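User: Can you help me understand a structure? I only have the sequence.
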Amino acid sequence: MKLKEIIIKNFKVFDDFKIEGLRQINLISGKNNVGKTTFLESCYINFHSHDIEHYISSFIKRGSLELSDFRHNKKLEKICINSNINKTAVNIKTDSIIIEVNGVSKTYASYEMPKLMENRTIENNNINFIPAFPINNDLLSYFFSRIQIARKKNLVNNSLAENFDKNIVEFDFILGEPKLFVLNREEGWVALSEFGEGIKRFISIICAIWASQDGACFIDEIEDGIHYLHYKKLWQIIFNLAKEANCQIFATTHSKEMIENYYKEAKNLDMKDISFTTLVTDKNQHIKAISYDFDWFIHEMSQNHEVRGW
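Assistant: Let's start by predicting it. Here is the structure, written out as tokens:
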């Protein structure tokens, strides 16, 4: 099921926030600290909230909620993350916490929360999150294993040769370390770390989308480490893979070049199942969403209108 709309109340920077008109590919922009990452986290949490245990686990896995938040933070007295997929709430009382997921509620005494929050994990599935900070090898290895299972490894190798270096023949994990086999290097297999963070992020995005087949993939600060000359090809790959893998994409950016390439490739490929959203603050400092569908977005960009909210 695709996420179409979501309402977020009392979670981090959001007091009462709503986005409608989400599509298969969704790009979110806005100034720093306006809530782009929190929006991705909220969607990720909502996707995972099939039942109460999944709801608690998803908060913990994203690092979004600490035990102290349940006990002391008055802003979190009632967290609500509701969408067309799942409806969830956390109500904090003086000595208890009430968690409700899709009409089913359960009350926990405050002293139960430390044990409840220990060792909670979400099983590997088709909802994946690529953080803005450098990707660790364990996460990359998991994404890559999923693309191997799908027998789509050539997608990675062909993209690397085409966009980075024609001498790159293959990407793989050798004795637990990510490496590239390069024709013009005497040692053959070369550590991926020698090529910089951009190529690693490029690989991660390709693998994560396929790891999210029939699910959703969240990419925070999509441009991190990637040279602007690769933006066009990256969007071509994302648009094509999203269709092939039936994956809903949510990505954030503050890069004007990234937005422009998103517009150009959506127009070139006639990719109408997209949205562009700008997060802005109103005069009362509440965060609001301005969402563009394909037609409106193409019109605004073709007129060289500023759509980033500043």
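Now, to help you interpret it: The chain is about 35% helix and 30% strand. The chain has a mean pLDDT of 89. Let me know which part you'd like to focus on.
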